[in-house]
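Task: sequence design from structure.
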């Protein structure tokens, strides 16, 4: 990468890193979240400004938002475990599977660990109305080491738009279309963060499993943003508060960054997986540059991208 391109990216990145999320309130852990599972594997630190969740031989751990939301902007700064992390899955996601077991909605960030010397990968996924038979997974490489420092991961969920962000750079956009029908998430959801053992699929399709000699695997979370329409589950269509200070679309400059990121960092997309879909799902808009990039995708070596959602025991270089 030449120096000029790096400088251009740096200017654009700083502009977006200090974007609209900087105007939203940051909550302490106790203001927004509650312990979900994991006994002593969840630790609240720095007067509630940060939390550690860990995985060891006994259990993983996780937390869940105190409120249920219908649309909004949701974010956390996350630092991932270091060293050998094959089979380890860290997830930051929205779901209503606890109340809609057979028709649940879900929006996922999943971070997939790797063997020593190999990079973490990130996966995003979208489910609506229990549409787990149509996987909408994508995987990407990152343009930084996510174990060195905190980075911000965010989900914008509106009535007709979903955007996934990393450090305020959009990496994926899903627009609601008539063809998607009920596959677009539309019911109130909670926010979750978990760490768990995904040995069966997470790293090269299960070839490399969690090695507990390297435990505990600790992921750190901070700068919690829960800026959305909180609802009473008994009145799911009625907002308790209005959503302000968040955009309803991405800017042209952000779109340029997203296109550049995707052309250089995407490693898998369901839209280009002809083994799964002879005809791409109707919402897919194909890009020949990405199609050429993914042409050599090997599902056996790479591992099938569809995750098995964890069940709770009670139920820096540039991408330019």
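Answer:
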């Amino acid at each position: 990468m030449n120096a000029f391109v790096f400088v251009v990216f740096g200017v654009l990145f700083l502009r977006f890193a200090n974007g609209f999320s900087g105007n939203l309130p940051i909550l302490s852990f106790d203001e927004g979240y509650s312990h979900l599972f994991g006994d002593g594997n969840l630790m609240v630190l720095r007067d509630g400004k940060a939390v550690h969740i860990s995985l060891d031989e006994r259990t993983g751990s996780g937390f869940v938002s105190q409120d249920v939301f219908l649309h909004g902007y949701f974010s956390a700064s996350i630092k991932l475990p270091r060293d050998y992390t094959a089979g380890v899955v860290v997830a930051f996601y929205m779901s209503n599977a606890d109340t809609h077991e057979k028709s649940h909605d879900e929006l996922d960030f999943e971070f997939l660990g790797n063997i020593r010397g190999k990079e973490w990968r990130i996966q995003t996924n979208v489910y609506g109305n229990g549409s787990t038979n149509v996987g909408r997974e994508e995987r990407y490489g990152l343009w930084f080491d996510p174990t060195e420092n905190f980075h911000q991961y965010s989900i914008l969920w509106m009535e007709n738009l979903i955007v996934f962000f990393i450090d305020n750079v959009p990496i994926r956009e899903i627009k609601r279309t008539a063809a998607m029908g009920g596959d677009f998430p539309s019911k109130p959801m909670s926010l979750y963060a978990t760490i768990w053992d995904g040995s069966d699929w997470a790293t090269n399709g299960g070839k490399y499993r969690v090695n507990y000699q390297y435990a505990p695997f600790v992921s750190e979370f901070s700068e919690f943003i829960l800026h959305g329409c909180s609802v009473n589950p008994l009145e799911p269509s009625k907002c308790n508060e209005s959503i302000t200070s968040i955009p309803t679309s991405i800017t042209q400059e952000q779109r340029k960054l997203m296109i550049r990121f995707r052309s250089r960092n995407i490693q898998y997309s369901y839209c280009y997986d002809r083994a799964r879909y002879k005809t791409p799902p109707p919402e897919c808009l194909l890009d020949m540059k990405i199609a050429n990039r993914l042409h050599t995708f090997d599902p056996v070596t790479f591992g099938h991208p569809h995750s098995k959602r964890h069940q709770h025991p009670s139920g820096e270089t540039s991408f330019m």
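The CA atoms of residues 252 and 258 lie 10 Å apart.
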